[in-house]
Specification:
Radius of gyration: 18 Å
CATH superfamily of the largest domain: Response regulator
Distance between the termini: 31 Å
CATH topology of the largest domain: Rossmann fold
CATH class of the largest domain: Alpha Beta
Number of domains: 2
Helix content: 40-55%
Number of helices: 10
Bound molecules: calcium ion
CATH architecture of the largest domain: 3-Layer(aba) Sandwich
Mean pLDDT: 82
Structural class: alpha/beta
Strand order of the largest sheet: 2-1-3-4-5
Largest sheet: 5 strands, parallel
Shape: globular
Amino acid sequence: MVQRRVDPAAALMASAARILVVEDEPVVAEVVERYLRRDGHQVRRVERGDEALAQFEEFEPELVVLDLMLPGVDGLEVCRRIRQRSNVPVIMLTARGEEVDKLLGLGIGADDYVTKPFSPRELAARVAAVLRRAGAAPAQGAPAERGREPLRFERLVIDPVERSVLLQGEPVSLTAREFDLIQYLAEHPRQVFTREQLLDAVWDREFTGGESTVTVHMRRLRSKVETDPSRPRHLKTVWGVGYKFEP
Ligand code: CA
């Protein structure tokens, strides 16, 4: 657990966090920084992928805004390396024409994507939403979570407070979004949801990648929490409709 000093002004902002912005276009980086600071976040900016990895260690960000095309080490590789050591939320900045589904399919573990050109206001809103989901908000976030018991199943334990998942006693490394998805399904056992309903519930309607996003996330989630992903025990497909969680 990282101890944080709580600045009273920052504490008023429910989602104030340390954010690392990795972007080599100065104009874009400046605008992003200005909007995030306005929301009370502490921002550090770097222009190169290799610098991003060094700053990740030093600054210990609670969220990373990461451009895809970077000098040094590219955004995909930066994201992969971050994922090897942390579940910190990552929002990728992608150029038009780089297909979101393809990126998701690479399984690099980003939590959200914004396509350039984007409105800084929209990015700031997504940052707030991702932080809210990740439970990274200090002070205000914690009390509401108290008293929430882990969901226990035969082979799986889902802890909404720690945001952790154990498979047969072993911790499973999930992205913030993957956790939200399995938690939502497990909190509504046997209830069948369409992909559209899951997009609304888990993605807050802000994600424009479409229903295949749900399919891709479900596949990744199964590969992580099912002992036999081709014959899932918990995360069931309901053909022609969507998905359900079988307790
Ligand atoms: Ca770039």
